[in-house]
Write the structure tokens for this entry.
Amino acid sequence: MRMLKLEISRYDWQAMKCGCNRSAEHIPLDFLSALGGPLPGRIGEGWADNHAYIQSNLMMPASATATMVVASLADREVPLEWRPHLLGVLSNLVYGEQEDIADSCKEAVRGCVEILFEEIATGRSKMASAYAFELLMAYDDVKVRLRDYQVKARANLPEDLHPENLDLDFL
């Protein structure tokens, strides 16, 4: 988890106000602790939901949280079963209501575009593939490539994302 911890250390979490009205310094601590335990009942429970975002409202630590989650996707020590949850959190951050904060989250996610395509290609989890697909739809410059993956890796995607059900040409 070296890269993950380095990314976490780049931010002054204590100076950010969390969605729970405390300092955000607990977000990376809770995140690292959560990664060592069982999957939560809902996406981001205990470390992102109601902290980095509340429903679709993004909070001050959202961008730093996005960077932390992106780093965790590249970390081989993070259990694979966490990927759908991590991608779900990123989706909540990228598509949040506060456009300026969402844009900075989107910029953080841009750094893992190859990981998102890899998630679709491997088909380890249809839920993870769906979140990866949803995240990639935020970037106009990858839509042609995304269409190819949609066609060629359709078995790895949920049915509602198959080419006959979702035409990327209209998005």
Remarks:
- DSSP finds eight helices and two strands in the chain.
- The first strand starts at residue 53 and ends at 54.
